[in-house]
Amino acid sequence: MKTDDLIRGLAADARPTRGLGTGLALGLAVGLAGALALFALILAPRAGMPGLLVEPRILLKFAVTLSLAAAAGLTALRLVRPGARVGEGAWLLLLPLAVLAAGVVAQLLVTPPESWMPGLMGHYALYCATLVPLLSAPLLGAVLLALRRGAPSHPALAGAAAGLLAGGLGAALYALHCIDDSPLFVLAWYGIAIAIVTAAGALIGRRLLAW
Questions:
Q1: How many CA atoms does the CB half-sphere of 85 hold within 13 Å?
Q2: In whole angstroms, what is the distance from residue 103 CA to residue 44 CA?
Q3: Which of 15, 20, 44, 86, CA to CA, is 20 to 30 A from 107?
Q4: One matching Pfam family, short form (predicted)?
Q5: CA 186 to the chain's CA centroid
Q6: What is the DSSP letter of 140?
């Protein structure tokens, strides 16, 4: 059987797709349990949570990270289908970027320029860049194992999507502790942390998700 015929045959089978969705949900549950255990061991919720969620800048952090995780999860499920096109559904990833861009523009418009750099650097930039990948690690492992049931044509891209999903959820969990609320901080340091997890997902997925 030719490779193209095999891919088309696998793509026509709807059962693996349904199984992938269920498996991903179970994997996320296991990974989230691990991430929550790490959070409980090394961090604590920010004082005033969850009442602070009415604050726009704090709410923005969760809107960006959770919408990124949701978009990445849908993208990952598409990419692990055999024969899936690379750009299919990728536009969903633009939505959290648009939300963050709106927050950054709003801050630049309403705050004086001398406050921009302090907002960008925050108080705990290196903690953010370290702890988000750490909290994301159980999620990334669980998601990649769940996606092994698929047959992606581009395993590195599927792994990167898994990394975005794990990084978004890890960042949302870290946001429960984080006191740096500037959208500029979120853009820079949450972005760096999530990029680290995404790169790890791509590197691991390239081998783990290959078939």
A1: 5
A2: 26
A3: 44
A4: NrsF
A5: 13
A6: H
